[in-house]
Design a protein that fits this description.
0% strand, mainly alpha
């Protein structure tokens, strides 16, 4: 859910839509990072470090969802007659069309 929001609604450049970059930009902190080439070695030699890396990703995802995605989707669902998954996964044009249809029905157009 958080990734769908980032891709469509975060207004971040294409190269800055990964979890680490979004966390730095939107939440203002640097998550634990591990070079992909070191992951297998660290899993064997430094399992506690890999566990903190995993937890760091989970915490970052949770806070992104909690701070940005949840209320955004909830707000859209109050004005657009779609479920949360539909609102999150539809494109901006489809959502705009749905909102226009709601307004048209309200005004009997």
């Amino acid at each position: 859910d958080a990734f769908c929001w980032v891709k469509r609604d975060s207004y971040l450049p294409q190269g800055s839509q990964g979890l680490k970059a979004v966390t730095k930009y939107k939440l203002g902190y640097d998550p634990v990072e591990v070079d992909p080439e070191d992951m297998v070695r660290y899993a064997k030699d430094r399992p506690a470090h890999m566990a903190s890396y995993s937890v760091s990703d989970a915490v970052a995802t949770y806070y992104l969802y909690d701070k940005y995605v949840h209320m955004f989707i909830f707000s859209l669902c109050t004005i657009i007659p779609m479920g949360p998954e539909d609102v999150l996964r539809k494109g901006s044009g489809t959502l705009c069309e749905a909102l226009l249809m709601v307004e048209a029905c309200t005004k009997s157009i």
